[in-house]
Give the backbone structure.
Amino acid sequence: MKTKAAVLYEAGSPLVIEELELDEPKSGEVLVKIGSAGICRSDWHLMSGENAARLPMVLGHEGSGTVEEVGSGVTVVKPGDKVILSFVASCGHCYYCNTGKPNLCDKHMATSTTMLDGTYRLHKGDQDFTPMGKLACFAQRSVVPDVSCIPCPDDLPLEIAAMIGCCVTTGVGAVTITAGVVPGSSVAVVGCGGVGLNVIQGAKLSGASKIIAVDISEGALEFAMGFGATHTVNPKQQDSVQRVKEITNGLGADYTFEVFGSKETVELAFDMARKGGTATIVGITPDGQIPEINPSTLVRQEKTLKGSYYGSARLHSDMPRIAEMYASGQLALDDMVTHRYHLDEINEAYQNLVNGDVGRGIITKFDDR
Ligand code: APR
Ligand code: ZN
Ligand code: ZN
């Protein structure tokens, strides 16, 4: 079958919308009609060349959709089911899947540029296209592993389901699972875009008493106040480490989160943590940028530096739980969507992200036009 998709042929060049050949789902795979796909910075890291990738590639890893067809042996979903798409296809059998860390699945990582069996489903002539996160959801349709499909309630809006597929789980999970923020804590969040806003919401849910939004965009800071931030700090206008210390009684924050992805912001997050505090890194830093973290400071100040991938979530149980949290009104996800685009407008959508538009943009229309 044919599908329209947004293709990255060359880093630094716009995505090309074109028709590709999409194979039938193989055993253990599912054909999904994409319903929504989020404009996340992880795709930009590849588009800009900040992080290397096998090209050509169909981007899109924050998605949701409706199952149209299943390959042999698929029992977890059936045609008509609404699904959140997970950009880690946890195999269920490796060391990490068996020890409660499916977000770190070895089989998924070992096949990071292909499907789980090492082959491709998207083609044009003799070219094979890498599916980002085995999802490739910047497309009308995609074939994905059945383990990437997380069934969700029929009444969960597809754009919310897509956000749960990346920014919500990544952000809320970083706070509640990776860092384990406890009530009364002080929290500083460096980078308040789609993922950072969900770190802020996670901190609020965890009962943090001070939630300091740190961003170079005044618009992002103002927007963050609507999601639970209690203070704002702009590193362009003041010594942000000093300001965070002032807000936290001279100590520094109990927990800090880096949610942009750069040498500079990782260093800020580390420096903003108090003695004995924890800095959790969520953003993906460009290849070759190595933050300067002084190991003596780590030792003498007993800081903890942690990485958080996909919010350390157990994807198949945590995403439905997060969907419940939205349904019960604990997560303000509707207000987070600031732009809705057609697939054809994807390059404009990424320009808006880079230019600092607040909140999350989402592709909600995929029809031929
Ligand atoms: N200091 C503080 N904030 C910054 C800085 C800086 N030096 N530079 C940029 N920012 C802010 C931007 O103004 C924006 O508000 O970081 C925010 C980034 O938000 P988005 O572009 O929406 O990125 P998002 O999709 O949230 O992803 C953030 O998480 O999952 C990873 O790969 C992803 O590395 C990326 C990070
Ligand atoms: Zn993402
Ligand atoms: Zn596994």
Observations:
- The radius of gyration is 20 Å.
- Residues 40-42, 45, 170, 190-196, 214-217, 220, 235, 259-261, 264-265, 282-284, 353, 356 surround adenosine-5-diphosphoribose (ligand 1) (CB under 6 Å).
- The first strand starts at residue 2 and ends at 8.
